[in-house]
From TrEMBL:
Matches recorded under PANTHER family: ADAPTIN, ALPHA/GAMMA/EPSILON
BP terms from Gene Ontology: intracellular protein transport; vesicle-mediated transport
Membrane topology note: Peripheral membrane protein
InterPro entries, per the entry: Adaptor_Complx_Large_Subunit (IPR050840), AP1_complex_gsu (IPR017107), ARM-like (IPR011989), ARM-type_fold (IPR016024), Clathrin/coatomer_adapt-like_N (IPR002553), Clathrin_a/b/g-adaptin_app_Ig (IPR008152), Clathrin_app_Ig-like_sf (IPR013041), GAE_dom (IPR008153)
Family from the record: Belongs to the adaptor complexes large subunit family.
Domain GAE: from-to ranges: 647-762
SUPFAM superfamilies, per the entry: ARM repeat, Clathrin adaptor appendage domain
GO annotations of cellular component type: AP-1 adaptor complex
Annotated keywords: Cytoplasmic vesicle, Golgi apparatus, Membrane, Protein transport, Transport
Transmembrane segments: none
Protein name (record): AP-1 complex subunit gamma
Location(s), subcellular: Cytoplasmic vesicle membrane; Endomembrane system; Golgi apparatus
């Protein structure tokens, strides 16, 4: 006996009429009970109505998994009303993670073989939505037959289903190559747009398909030329631009076909110039077509004049009122600045104007492009503009702007005097107090010795040094970061002040001795510093509070280790290698400072002072393009330490799939043999970007692993800028290393996850 229940319209009205969430849940639970009872009783006439109500409940976020098998029954039904609701339910309730979706393969195959277009359309929509790799392999032949059917309704859906199949199973490309050439002659807008998309997917995933479709470049050029000149379909024109969606898709395909191919690029050069000059830019649709034209010109082997035209189009985009258009223009010019530097230089005044944009993303892109435009001829003017921007820019941009100015000054300084003046102006605007606090903390003992090479050396007392740092901590003008530098400097001075004869004793023993006379300050410095540090243990700033709590713990529980932990940083070696691994290992040695032997104190002070002249050792001159890490003050705040010797451990390729390669390079810093630095480099040689790239690592419990932040989460196609990530592994027992990696990313429209263990690691990593 079938239990009576509400109709779909009545259910919707009752749910919307519920005043509380509890009333809504009560209505839904009651109706779901009626639906379950109807399914158990097997009422074939009202099954599709019950499933329709269940789908509405599912869209509200309530569980509806018990209706999956009912979807299969409705799909197998000969009635169209049942099939329509059954296929809709399959698209909503089934996916690749559930084995039940494989049960509809035979039903879809039977429906595709029928001559009823409406049923074929339902089957194709479902296959393109939930079709797994297994289903695509089983049904590829049926879809290929429908590509050449006389009805445009079915052919359009078959083309879109073929796109889904290629994304799921790229090896099926050979099946769809022959029909695509015939479909290019279509006059139907939807079929032609789908065909261009299908060819694009084929060319991105198959080198054979790319070679095959380069023969149809003249035909694609003719189609696009017809759209530009005479207009292809009036009903698809937008804001006076004839079918911009089809134009954009053709331009993307031409970009792929013309990349690194001289003959194809030559065929499309004239057409691209025509599109660039005849497209109306008063509307957003025209700007979209022009932007795709510029990207195509940039990627193919276009003529020099055409590339200048593309740069000028981007220059006009910089004057547009739309922020999105200005942003894509700045991003594209940044890509072109290396290959077309002189053409981009013509728009330098407009780029500098973009620095004043209130939008943070625009000003950041303008800053990156401005720094890339600096050369020896404009370094004075550009540095002046950038320094003006530094004074008023957002706090998040100050570090990048200051670093960029210092790098540009080192590379293109006309005179040494101008170079030093520029460095001092940047430090005065940004981190001069922080630099001074770090220098006092690191070299405070040398400051007190008065060994400066001056005619009248300045005599400094310990009391004045501590009072100065306390003044920085108490000043209302000090930023939290500045207070952090001052607090760290005080901690360093607790082990560096001269005359402290009791430094080898723990602080609690010093306190038991009682207060010394007022004239004997030397042995009171640790206690005074400890009192100052304790004040900030309850600071509202979380970073400053954490530092104070950790320093207090160091005084209270690990005082015997304080001198070793706060040991001086080693010298920066001159003329170091430019390897990324060496650069990263320099930064990594900060946490292992206690294990690194100290250098003579006087030489360290001279080394710090030598940073101002930007010179290197006479035996190894600086490179022409990239500055040495030790030749500038850019990384002065990063607490410079010794650069490791070049690594002798061979590199290792551990992963390769569909053009994505993962390489490991290894460095063992000479001062810390227990530390291993592994640089993970991801390179993508395929035709599609790898997005949402995440690399995770695991080691045995006897090791200590720290993963640094990666350089990005997108690996550009065609061998673009690789993504790098540093792994810092501490191996105190020198045990053989076992490393397991997990990669997750999106590639060719698929979500990929790979977990594997690296077994062939070189023994030099731990021996």
């Amino acid at each position: 006996m079938v239990v009576s229940s509400l109709k779909l319209q009545d259910l919707i009205e009752e749910i919307r009429g519920a005043k509380t969430q509890a009333q809504e849940r009560e209505v839904i639970q009651k109706e779901c009970a009626h639906i379950r009872a109807s399914f158990r009783d097997g009422d074939p006439l009202h099954r599709h109505r019950q499933l329709a109500k269940l789908l509405y409940v599912h869209m509200l976020g309530y569980p509806a998994h018990f209706g999956q098998m009912e979807c299969l029954k409705l799909i197998a039904s000969p009635r169209f009303t049942d099939k329509r609701v059954g296929y809709l339910g399959a698209m909503l309730l089934l996916d690749e993670r559930q084995d039940a979706h494989l049960l509809i393969t035979n039903s879809i195959k039977n429906d595709l073989s029928q001559g009823i277009q409406a049923v074929q359309g339902l089957a194709l929509c479902t296959l393109s939505t939930v079709g797994s790799a297994e289903m695509c392999r089983d049904l590829a032949t049926e879809v290929e037959k429908l590509l050449l059917q006389p009805g445009s309704y079915v052919r359009k859906k078959a083309v879109l289903t073929a796109v889904h199949m290629i994304r799921k199973v790229p090896e099926l490309s050979n099946i769809f190559l022959p029909p695509c050439a015939q479909l290019l002659h279509e006059r139907h807008h939807g079929i032609l747009l789908g065909t261009i998309t299908l060819i694009t997917e084929l060319c991105e995933r198959s080198p054979a398909a790319l070679k095959h479709f380069r023969k149809v470049v003249p035909q694609l050029v003719q189609i696009l030329q017809t759209l530009v000149t005479t207009g292809y379909s009036v009903e698809h024109s937008i804001s006076g631009v004839s079918d911009p969606f089809l134009q954009v898709q053709i331009l993307r395909l031409l970009r792929i076909l013309g990349r690194n191919h001289e003959e194809s690029s030559e065929i499309m050069n004239d057409l691209l110039a025509q599109v660039a000059t005849n497209t109306d830019t008063s509307r957003n649709a025209g700007n979209a077509v022009l932007f795709e034209t510029v990207l195509t010109i940039m990627d193919i082997r276009s003529a020099a004049g055409l590339r200048v035209l593309a740069v000028n189009i981007l220059g006009r985009f910089l004057l547009n009122n739309d922020k999105n258009i200005r942003y894509v223009a700045l991003t594209s010019l940044l890509r072109m600045v290396q290959s077309d530097h002189s053409a981009v230089q013509r728009h330098r005044p407009t780029v500098v104007e973009c620095l004043r944009e209130p939008d943070a993303s625009l000003s950041r892109r303008a800053l990156e492009l401005s720094l890339a435009l600096v050369n020896s001829s404009n370094v004075r003017a550009m540095t002046q503009e950038l320094q003006s921007f530094l004074e008023s820019c957002l706090p998040d941009l100050r570090a990048d702007c200051a670093s960029g100015i210092l790098l540009a000054a080192e590379r293109f300084a006309p005179t040494k005097r101008w170079h030093i003046d520029t460095i001092l102006r940047v430090l005065t605007t940004q981190p001069l107090v922080q630099v001074a606090a770090w220098c006092i903390g690191e070299y405070g003992d040398l400051l007190l010795e008065g060994g400066c090479e001056e005619t009248e050396p300045l005599q400094v007392e310990e009391e004045k040094v501590l009072a100065l740092l306390e003044k920085v901590l108490q000043s209302h003008m000090s930023l939290p970061a500045t207070r952090g530098y001052a607090l760290t400097a005080l901690m360093k001075l607790s082990t560096r002040l001269r005359g402290d004869n009791n430094l080898s004793l723990p602080c609690h023993i010093l306190e038991l001795k009682g207060r010394l006379p007022s004239h004997s300050h030397a042995t009171l410095w640790p206690s005074r510093i400890r009192q100052v540090v304790s004040i900030y243990g309850s600071c509202l700033d979380v970073e400053l509070q954490q530092r104070a709590v950790e320093y207090n713990t160091l005084f209270r529980k690990y005082d015997h280790m304080r001198a070793a932990i706060l040991e001086k940083m080693p010298l920066v070696e001159r003329g170091g290698t430019q390897d990324e691994e060496a650069k990263e290992s320099k930064e990594a040695q900060l946490s292992e400072a206690a294990l690194v032997p100290t250098e003579p104190q006087a030489s360290k002070l001279l080394d710090l002072l030598d940073l101002l002249d930007g010179t290197f050792g006479a035996t190894q001159p600086p490179p022409a393009l990239e500055p040495s890490p030790g030749g500038t003050l850019v990384h002065l705040l990063d607490l410079p330490c010794a650069s490791p010797a070049p690594a002798s451990i061979p590199n290792l390729r551990v992963f390769e799939r569909e053009g994505l390669q993962l390489n490991l390079s290894f460095v063992r810093p000479p001062g810390t043999p227990a530390l291993l630095l592994i640089t993970v480099t991801a390179v993508n040689t395929s035709g599609a970007d790898v997005t949402h790239f995440v690399c995770q690592a695991a080691v045995p419990k006897s090791f200590h692993l720290q993963l640094q932040a990666p350089s990005g989460d997108t690996v550009p196609a065609q061998g673009g800028l690789p993504v790098t990530q540093l792994l810092r592994i501490l191996n105190p027992n020198k045990a053989p290393l076992r490393l397991k990696l997990r990669l997750t990313y999106n590639h060719f429209g698929q979500s990929v996850q790979e977990i594997f263990e690296v077994n062939n690691l070189p023994v030099e990593m731990w021996q």
